[in-house]
Task: structure prediction
Amino acid sequence: MRLFQDASYKFIEKRQTAYVVSAVVLLVGIGAMVFNVATLGSWLRYGVDFTGGSLVQVQFQDDVTVEEVRAALGGVDITRFGDVDLHEFVIRAPVDEESSISEVADQIEARVASGLPGRPFEVVRTELVGAKVGGELQTKALLAILFSFALTLIYLAFRFELRFGLAAVIATAHDIMITLGFLALFRVEIALPTVAAILTILGYSLNDTIVVFDRIRENMGMKGARKRDPVELVNQSINETLPRTVLTSGTTLAVLVALLILGGAVIRDFTIVLILGVLIGTYSSIFVASPALIEIQKRWGIGRSGEKKKRIEPATV
Result:
């Protein structure tokens, strides 16, 4: 039995509603970024990887709460690491440029020992990132995302047509902006794994969009396709690829949810961003990329050579 074998949903007719939903979510995210600039000094909550500082992981022998460790140190970012039974915490704090890893570890160890006397512990891990290195990582992360955008446009313009490439870039930019808005709204710490998750989202969203676009192109090449309403043709293509879209997204989400539950705190933010990205990418391939393709064809009619073709006006919806 084939899933959604006789699907005939009118997705494109709902594009105006989808535009409103996307616009509201984007505005909320942009508002969160502006608020973060006013309160945090940056539009996202960057971690040690991007701002510079120290990351020290300590493990207590006895049960200790986050509040106790935070009260003992004060003024630093403290999160529980791993299972509760392990009594491990990650301490993030700014340090001087001249400080070495051993000096940072000694300072944190001394502060914990004085703040929590009689609570034996050990320093498990110490990492140190300079502010200059953190700034370079911010720049390189942004360049990686922009470079992937450029490659996306070039590939799709060569593989399909320029209009397909432009529509895919619009959808991908939509996905990245909503993801960044989510990170800003909930102040998720931006570390290198988070950037890796964003790039993974970009690839996943693009893959799902290409599947839909490939079917649209196939249907456009069929006999009598030029006489058909573009909205009807695109709806047919989305419905034909819907089983693959649902199954792929569903199995991916099942794995990610299991990873979220069983993976522990160290990859929790990474997994949450990926789950969000899969949901947004699936939504955008249907309600953003495909309508964008129709709008581009309607307004500019951009074909493979970049010249305007004869416009095929879609029916009024």
Q: What stands out?
A: The mean pLDDT is 82. The chain is about 65% helix and 10% strand. Residues 43 and 96 are 24 Å apart (CA to CA). The longest helix spans residues 230-262.
